[in-house]
Request: fold
Amino acid sequence: MSNREQAISLSPEQAAYLRKVRRRKINIFLSQVLLLVTLLGIWELAAIVGWINPFITSQPSGILKTIVNLYNSGDLFLHIGVTVWETIVGFTLGTILGTIFAIILWWSEPLARVLDPYLVVLNSLPKVALGPIIIVWMGSGVSAIIVMALLVSVVVTILGVYAGFSQVDPDRVKLLKTFGASKGQILQKAVLPGSVPTIISALKINVGLSWVGVIVGEFLVSKAGLGYLAVYGGQVFRLNLVMTSVIILGVAAAIMYLAVVLLEKLFIRWQQ
Amino acid sequence: MARPLVQVKDIVVKYHSPEGETTALENISLDVFQGQFISIVGPSGCGKSTLLNVVAGLLEPTQGEVAINGRPVEGVSASVGYMPQTDQLFEWRSIWKNVILGLEVQNKLTAETRESVRQLLERYGLWEFRNAFPRQLSGGMRQRAALIRTLAIKPEILLLDEAFSALDYQTRLVVSDEVKKIISREGKTAILVTHDISEAISMADHVVVLTRRPGTIKSIHKIVLTCQEHTPIKCREAPEFRDYFNRIWKELDIHVQ
Reply:
């Protein structure tokens, strides 16, 4: 039932129930904010009173100061921009290439069988271990970091999307065959459009994986980015800088994940 | 008598697997004439659907041949329309886009074919729903849309593969009534594969009983029912219905272990 219908026929019991639901929502949100404030407060207090050494643990006021300094020097958005850009390119390429590869596997079952053990090995291999090879091949620049992000996500995409393709109802394929459909038409009319939800869920996983790839890549080679800031901060023992980059990273990753969730919602609405 | 529309001649189908060879169908011969409605019943796993796949040209028989209009079937034939177990409407396509799917695949979308699809939708009460999506339609309407999708490519013979088995019992009765009406009105020939004896008797003019695997034809029953309105629901009330049911039930020889 839509909200509008409820508003028209609102019994006192229903109104009371709705108030209760809303109150509970507000309470949960307030508790979440309170938890954050309390944790930050204890951290700051402990640093001021001297229970912990802010030189090692950093402290919220120091992090805030670092952010303001970075902003004033104009570096804040440079670092965020570099990392976000690398991540977006990495997971977009990973999703597109993975989907193309999944189509090739779907097209040729013998090829899929031949490649199966290789995919299993590639999937189990921690892609981070390929870092040194990538640096030698791609040089120590942004492209090496993007390749790292792509490698981390592409194999998972291939396996996930290919599994999605294989789940298309055989009766649906049979129906198209009785119309005389070619393999290309089966792909275009039934398999690809039917797998859009699978591809979007691959995208959701890839966002997270690409962050891993990008940050590892930045740890290894970079002159800018949030991963670079964290490593640099660690090397010069400026823990405020390390914490700052970790916190910004958390916020940026959450925003990007929410953007993909929003994309999914838009798609579902469009589909209906 | 005229030449049969579909001639199944001494079909043998064997399936191969590493565990061995299975004979699914053995020496099946069957003639289907223009305008007939044939039901095929048999114990599960007797090769009913295999037979349908052979007629549709989806499966090449190990031996024997199928001819439609005297021409041997090689690959998928344009004169065959197939109805799967579930309606298989594509959920991301509107009803209109769904019913023209076959024409789209065959590159036959012309002003003329569009018009004939429009007439079918109007005749069977789906024209107002042409822009709706499958999930907005009732089970019965979805089946009707699926049937129109099959009729749109103007097949001479319809193959219904347990076409109503996914529906709940009440919807199933109504839908089989509707489908039967539409098929007779359009003057189509149909072969229905089902495990439901009542459905087989009430819809068809001939019921073919297959034996346990390897499937052979055990008997063919010509169904003559005395009912005022010849619709599947009314037919179930005919006095002869029980006799047919009991005879076919005995022939199926089903034992529950």
Notes: The two ends of chain A are 16 Å apart (CA to CA). The mean pLDDT of chain A is 90. Residues 88 and 207 of chain A are 8 Å apart (CA to CA).
